[in-house]
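Job type: complex structure
Entries:
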Amino acid sequence: MRPQSGLIPDVPIMNSLVFEDFNLGHFGQFGPRRVTREEMLAFAEEFDPQPMHLDEEAASRSMLRGFAGSGWHLCSIVMRMMFDGFIGRTASLGSPGVNELRWLAPFRPDRDITLDVEVLEARISRSRPSTGIVMFKMVASDASGALCEMVSPIIVRRRDGVVAGQVS
Amino acid sequence: MRFFEDIEVGQRRALGAFTFTADDIKKFASQFDPQRFHLDEEEGRKSLFGGLAASGWHIGSVCMKLLVADGQRQAREIVARGEKVAVWGPSPGFRELRWIRPVLAGDTISFASEVLSLRQSASRPEWGIIEVRNTGANQRGEPVFSMLSTAFVPRRHRAS
């Protein structure tokens, strides 16, 4: 028997979280992470140069009612908090997308952001039985409340992933 | 940018193209998504992606960049015609975002945006709500990215 290395990527699972480690319910809270005004301006200049993300005056006249970072910057910070919190030590193969994302409140500078992660669903992949699909709900909050929430699946290797891949 | 009344369902705009260099991919990933397959060519090759792959959040952020640039182009055209430019509001969110195929180092992705629906905001009568499908295709014409995105668009004639 030889490993199907062409089909199943060589994700190291030593000391890693695998599919079986993700139980339904609250998984953890991560952070805090602070994002400065300078970081927000740098991201907005490169990816989202709308006046409401660059200029105090334009921001105060906008629906944001004051300076706030790009929603895509917040998404990217959430990704980094997920990485630092658990993805960095998870046998993850990536994600096919985001089912839903809602920006709930302006992303203000210099506030502590925390990330709550919940597992909504975990099932074995039909097309790639050595892996499972874990559906996460992530909520990023600061002291004023939730800033954004998203539901997104991540493909995670199963503990017996290689064996399952060979058998099927 | 255009007002709510000037937009029709089905309107499609090409937003332009962006080439994801290896340096771009690694720079974004090292800051926001330092998974092995976004940082290293060899790790990318061994992964499901089959090469150094851009973070999905990088792809979404580049789509936003091209949407903003297209909005600025539209605004300049509107000003040149002597008309009033609409200032769009923030987006409440998106759904059904799909990273359909990997975006690998050197890929050039062309983005487009198509209007799916328009409705008046119940809570904010001076605003309309637009839903668009933003898509990206690589240099071979293969779809790589799709999302349904919502935004607040000001109405030309404010409801009283």
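Summary: Chain A touches chain B at residues 9-10, 43, 46-52, 62-64, 70-73, 75-77, 79-80, 83, 87-88, 92-103, 148, 155 (CB under 8 Å). Helices of chain A lie at 37-47, 51-54, 56-61, 71-85, 161-167.
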